[in-house]
Design goal:
- The protein is α+β, with helices and mostly antiparallel strands.
- It contains 7 helices and 6 strands; from the N terminus they run ββββββααααααα.
Length: 234
Amino acid sequence: MRARAGTAADVRTLARDQWTVAGRYDALRPFHVVALGDPAGTELYVSAVTGAVVLDTGARERFWNWLGAVPHWLYPTPLRARPDLWRDVVLWVSGIGIAGAVSGLVLGIWRLRPRRRYPSGAATPYRGIGRLHHLFGIVGGLGILTFVVSGWLSMNPNRWFSGPSVSPQARATYAGAPPLPACPRSGTPPHRAPCPSASSPSPDAPTSSPATPRVAGAQARRSRGRRFSRPHRA
């Protein structure tokens, strides 16, 4: 494999790394990681199961993810590879953050006097940097609280937002169950109803109730009369 003229691509095999730690890649492991050696630092992840390229990363996006998404979501590979442990850690850390933000807001609002001001004439008892910290902390604390609460709720604490469990039949249907065979000689698409037999009427054929003996006899007499009657002469 060649990345460009005169440059051999570097290939290594792995089961999991920082960029393939999510569970959606489990059915595709292991991977052949092909480093193309281009200026962008492109790496292709080829599934050893399907042979398809399932992911490509660049040096720039890997760098910014290390600074952004990985610390934000507490996403180091050894922790994220254990979903239950990772979920508990995120819930506890965000829960402690919520408690800290709420306590800070309560104390900040309690010490704020917009009407009955302090002897200095200010709404806050602090001065200098302490005053800025107090005022900006109240405003910023609201944003931090909503940010941390949204992250905590996204982890579905106590399974509050979990719906009913999916049945195995529904899972098999979603995954793609093998199709049923088509009815012979009909060319109709597969269906779950039994194929009609040769003696059974077609579902598209018009249905009629059987005639009673009296009606059948009347129809036969009219038919014979039309057959043997002479044509009318003027």
